[in-house]
């Protein structure tokens, strides 16, 4: 892991084992529109504590409401584009958001944009070992400001990708800040974008093209990066 968090884990007031991820997917039993092709997963990142541990949200005299629900640390969202459906993957992505459409457009052959399924571009096939399967897109990763700098986002992303990428040939993302705090300051935005890219590289992503990064699901690199982050928080 070449990326070094700017804040040491020793400053965290809780253990890495207290961080819990909760996954949520909702879909109709009978698909309509692009529901058969496009899945949207939301992942909550929360801190939990033992029954006998103190909680920063309440005093000892209070019953802790966060014991069951956890204290929110951040959240993530993933979009899975499924292959072998009756929908053109590009059209399904375009129906979701401009960001998702851009990722799919960069990874697929524009000549087949209105043909059902995923049709990878030559550039994509050159960098992905086995270009057969679905595409998982890491759309957003948000960590609450007070918990940034420890590497929690990288740890959570690696763990979530491990759970959600089964059947996918690649995971894609476009590193960018989630907060709208830069206004017209392009220099500050680019600087933040570069830092975020380093974080995702520590998870296993590599630059692809036009700001898109890819992670090859067939390679061992993801698991190595994941274990490195696990060991980092175990310390």
UniProtKB/TrEMBL annotation:
InterPro entries cross-referenced by the UniProt entry: Acyl_CoA_acyltransferase (IPR016181)
Source organism per UniProt: Streptomyces bathyalis
Protein name: N-acetyltransferase domain-containing protein
